[in-house]
Automatic annotation (TrEMBL):
<protein>
    <submittedName>
        <fullName>GntP family permease</fullName>
    </submittedName>
</protein>
<feature type="transmembrane region" description="Helical">
    <location>
        <begin position="30"/>
        <end position="46"/>
    </location>
</feature>
<feature type="transmembrane region" description="Helical">
    <location>
        <begin position="266"/>
        <end position="288"/>
    </location>
</feature>
<feature type="transmembrane region" description="Helical">
    <location>
        <begin position="388"/>
        <end position="404"/>
    </location>
</feature>
<feature type="transmembrane region" description="Helical">
    <location>
        <begin position="360"/>
        <end position="381"/>
    </location>
</feature>
<feature type="transmembrane region" description="Helical">
    <location>
        <begin position="138"/>
        <end position="159"/>
    </location>
</feature>
<feature type="transmembrane region" description="Helical">
    <location>
        <begin position="171"/>
        <end position="198"/>
    </location>
</feature>
<feature type="transmembrane region" description="Helical">
    <location>
        <begin position="58"/>
        <end position="80"/>
    </location>
</feature>
<dbReference type="Pfam" id="PF02447">
    <property type="entry name" value="GntP_permease"/>
</dbReference>
<feature type="transmembrane region" description="Helical">
    <location>
        <begin position="229"/>
        <end position="250"/>
    </location>
</feature>
<keyword id="KW-1133">Transmembrane helix</keyword>
<dbReference type="GO" id="GO:0005886">
    <property type="term" value="C:plasma membrane"/>
</dbReference>
<feature type="transmembrane region" description="Helical">
    <location>
        <begin position="424"/>
        <end position="445"/>
    </location>
</feature>
<dbReference type="GO" id="GO:0015128">
    <property type="term" value="F:gluconate transmembrane transporter activity"/>
</dbReference>
<dbReference type="InterPro" id="IPR003474">
    <property type="entry name" value="Glcn_transporter"/>
</dbReference>
<feature type="transmembrane region" description="Helical">
    <location>
        <begin position="6"/>
        <end position="23"/>
    </location>
</feature>
<feature type="transmembrane region" description="Helical">
    <location>
        <begin position="336"/>
        <end position="354"/>
    </location>
</feature>
Length: 453
């Protein structure tokens, strides 16, 4: 079996193959990751039967861990989109924050909507509202476009049940509840970084909003709108349940008298991410003003279809990671990087390179998680909190940077009426700032957690 430097060169070659196959040859990431998994194992010297078993075990293992969570999350997102709840969330935040802070409102709104909805879908859903608010507040469409895009982007890479961080948590073995809580803590200030950038930089590029509809007309298009409480419930209740479940997992060791017996078992059950997200999905059904069988049939079918590609790519990423875990990489990494204390930075840099090359943040997260998972001990991240921070560092790298090979870049450009050159200056540079700001904040939090725990 290959050892040392030849094995590292094989790994580099596998990554290069994934990049070329997806970016240049237009091969789907699902197939590229599976081919890379098989070829890496065979070339490294694994027994062919063992390589085949590792791929299938890795594929099934990761989907068994997070498959239901991803599907339930996409169903929630579909209901929020089609019921008009996303618009209600935006209006609620606007009322509480105030129209004088419209930029912050759009960034915060994006951060909420993107938790169950893909950021590109969220931008399309809210683009009409974005234009109307820009017209009403007298702001350039570029200002609110970048603020909304940034808010959507941040929680997209940090906060489950968005598929990327969930998949990374599954591959790396991090607790999803802790990833969710830590992701929210990381996201909160970075969302405001996006708003500040939009106000101070994106605002220099004036774009007339030219709204096709007023806010009232947008609401009329949706028909009867759900209440504010109902609109937020499918997001906040699963998050609360998962957080409570994570807390309930600790008293057995730390405070045996606090939560024990039947109560603890039920809290752990309700706080299981799959259970919590399924509960959120049924809550989402309840927000639909005109509930009928099309919701439980057609909408759920559409949500499952939307999840299918993510499930396939996630499973392939798990297969690739399983093969890498069977190779003797750790000793070489320990000898070369182990004493440098750059574990989080290494994860960030790899994810940033993958993002810049591949365009897709989700694929960058999955590929990097597969690469990093077998190296956690060597990078000094093989603890419960270390794995959580590894997921967050990968998420930060997967934002850095969004440019012409990223479909989200073109959605922002198209729906914000930006010239390509403007988008590079207003948006691509923004993603560089967001990514670097995020990893700095994550390193600070890791050091603070090390002092406390």
């Amino acid at each position: 079996m290959l050892q040392g430097l030849p094995l590292i060169l094989l790994l580099v070659g596998a990554v290069a193959f994934i990049i070329i196959a997806t970016a240049k040859l237009d091969l789907h990431a699902f197939l590229a990751l599976l081919i890379a998994a098989y070829l890496t194992g065979l070339i490294a010297g694994l027994d062919p039967a063992e390589a085949a078993t590792l791929v299938t075990d890795g594929f099934g293992g990761i989907l068994g861990y997070i498959g239901i969570v991803i599907i339930a999350g996409t169903i929630i997102g579909t209901c929020l989109e089609r019921s008009g709840a996303a618009i209600v969330i935006a209006e609620t935040i606007l009322d509480y924050v105030g129209e004088e802070h419209t930029t912050e409102v759009m960034a915060i709104t994006g951060s909420f909507v993107s938790i169950p909805v893909f950021c590109d879908s969220g931008f399309v859903i809210l683009s009409g509202l974005n234009r109307s608010l820009a017209e009403r507040s007298g702001l350039s469409l570029s200002t609110l476009g970048v603020a909304l895009a940034g808010g959507l982007y941040v929680t997209h890479v940090f906060v489950p049940p968005t598929p990327g961080p969930i998949a990374a948590a599954g591959i790396i073995g991090a607790d999803i509840g802790l990833v969710m809580l830590a992701g929210i803590i990381v996201s909160a200030p970075i969302v405001f970084v996006a708003a500040i950038w939009a106000d101070r930089v994106a605002s220099n590029y004036h774009i007339d909003p030219n709204p096709e509809m007023t806010i009232d007309e947008i609401k009329d298009e949706y028909g009867s709108m759900p209440s504010r409480a109902a609109s937020f419930a499918p997001l906040l209740i699963p998050i609360a349940l998962i957080a409570i479940g994570s807390i309930a997992a600790y008293p057995e060791a730390e405070n045996p008298e606090l939560i024990t017996g039947t109560l603890q078992r039920w809290l752990l059950f309700l706080g299981d991410p799959a259970v919590a997200l399924l509960i959120g999905a049924f809550i989402a059904f309840a927000i639909v003003p005109d509930f009928d069988s099309s919701v439980t049939d057609e909408w759920v079918s559409d949500g499952i279809k939307n999840a299918a590609v993510i499930l396939a790519v996630t499973g392939a990423g798990g297969a690739f990671g399983e093969v890498l875990g069977a190779l003797p990489l750790q000793s070489f990494i320990t000898d070369t990087l182990g004493g440098l204390g750059i574990g989080l930075l290494a994860a960030f840099i790899i994810a940033a390179a993958m993002k810049s090359a591949l365009g897709s943040s989700t694929v960058a997260i999955l590929t990097t998680a597969s690469l990093v998972a077998p190296l956690l001990a060597s990078l000094g991240l093989n603890t419960e909190l270390g794995r959580v921070f590894a997921v967050l560092a990968i998420g930060a790298g997967s934002m850095t940077v969004s440019h012409a090979n990223d479909s989200y870049f073109w959605i922002i450009t198209e729906f914000s009426d930006m010239e390509t050159a403007t988008a590079y200056q207003a948006w691509t540079l923004a993603t560089l700032v967001l990514g670097v700001s995020s990893i700095i904040w994550i390193v600070i939090l890791q050091n603070a957690a090390g002092l406390v725990f």
